[in-house]
Amino acid sequence: METIRKPWKLVQKSRFSHSISSHLRNPSLQIDNEINRITKLINDHPFSENQSLFLQQIPPSILSAHLIENVLGRLFSGHSNGLKAYEFFKFSLRHSESFKPTSDSFEKTLHILTRMKYFDKSWELMEDIQLKYPHLLTLKSMSIFLSRFAKFQSFDETLEAFERLEKRVFVGRVFGVEEFNVLLKAFCLQRQMKEAKAVFRKMYSRFTPNTQTLTILLLGFKETGNVNAVELFYHEMIKRGFKPNVVTYNIRIDAYCKKRSFGDAVRVFEEMEKLGMLPTIETITTLIHGAGVVRDVHKARELFDGIFVRNLEPDTGAYNALISSIVKSKDFNSAVKLMDEMEEKGVGYDNVTYHTVFSGFVKSNLIDDVCRLYRRMADKQFVPKSCTVVMLMKYFCENQRVELGLELWDYLVMNGSCPHGHAVDHLVTSLCSCGEVDTAHECLKQLVERGRHPNEGGYRVLERRRPDCQFELVLYIDIKPTKLEDQCVWILEYWD
Question: Which residues, in sequence order, are CB contacts of 308 under 8 Å at separation 6+?
Fold first, then answer.
């Protein structure tokens, strides 16, 4: 059997290289290279060495708001160790004489920490920001924190967190209906409508509800997938004097589309137009998705073409919706042509673009097409999100193409991304089954050296094949959010 090359010996291909002269001619390319270098630097080194490493390798003169935001964005999308991202952000604050820290960089750091359930560090970060840069504290940062807190913590703990934010973080800010709406939305986005109801009952007398409050509750019902609840609540809102807007109609249209009731979605759309409300690009995109769900490609294309008639410009989301509809019909050539059209018109790809087309190829078992699209993605130095990485790694490994899985691993590590634990499980298991136990051990070792905990599954597979393997780590099991069983309608009692 052909020996599989080791991931740490990957030689970067010429298509990824750039000449020094081109660097000098293109300042933006220099910045991009610094973003790549710093992201890889953070991912490749142990957590304990980060501060001294930053001082040695990152001259404060190169720090800028743009660079910091993009490095943190890469760390977030690559599921890097949240504590290392936090240390980098703190480093940037210590050397912020030449630039002003932005809300975006703070919010990304907070998002990384809360996603990994580092709530103690999140409190530490917010309270530190409150003392030094209180202007960075926004409703968005509050929403990021409370949404994750509501997902992983109890109802009472979330209410206590809201009170702590008011007293110790957003000091001097008088909490009103906007902050109340953020708390309400945190529960609604997690489909925790019983908790949302309890919050509303407990606090509505203190915070007078507004139009956004009702829209958030409507969104919550939509998230549960209960179309009847959406419509009942909507009509109750109208009955009590609420004037619907485009956002309200978008929520109703989306609710019907996701339940495969495309005809009802079109009916609501027509109702909206009769009232003289101009649809937004989000409205049309939602309908295109709905047409795709019911496999009506002709209608999806008609809606997309109608974007231009309405003097709107299709964005990445609109193209993604049409591509999704076409992929469902297995017209992959047309999907690839749409990607070409996006490129010609300067409409950027995002992870949804790649994931949608990859998933179509994977489901149809078109491995050559998967490889071609993978090369296209790699040529653009695009780093996919975890859901795409896991899908590709699983596909390669289940089809006995572990060398492609290892190449994907190389590509991610080379670009400063730390692969998701489930992707690592697939790769380690496949390598062990091929007899490449040492290579599997090195992959897992790389993961641990980057400050990430491997999943127990992959670790145990390797341990059975190589009992002497030892890592200084603590295995853990992710806490799963509580799922609601009761999605009943509770309407009239709110306003009585």
Answer: 314
* pLDDT attached to residue 300: 96
Share of the chain above pLDDT 90, in %: 54
Are residues 76 and 112 in contact, defined by beta-carbon separation less than 8 angstroms? yes
Q: Alpha carbon of 309 to those of 167, 269, 284: distances in Å? A: 51, 16, 12
Dump pLDDT digits (tens) for 414-430.
877 767 778 888 888 88
* Residues 28 and 401: beta-carbon distance below 8 Å: no
Q: Which residues of the chain have pLDDT under 50?
A: 1-25, 472-496
The pLDDT, as a whole number, for residue 131 is 93
Is the whole model's pTM more than 0.85, yes or no?
no
The per-residue pLDDT for 237 is 85
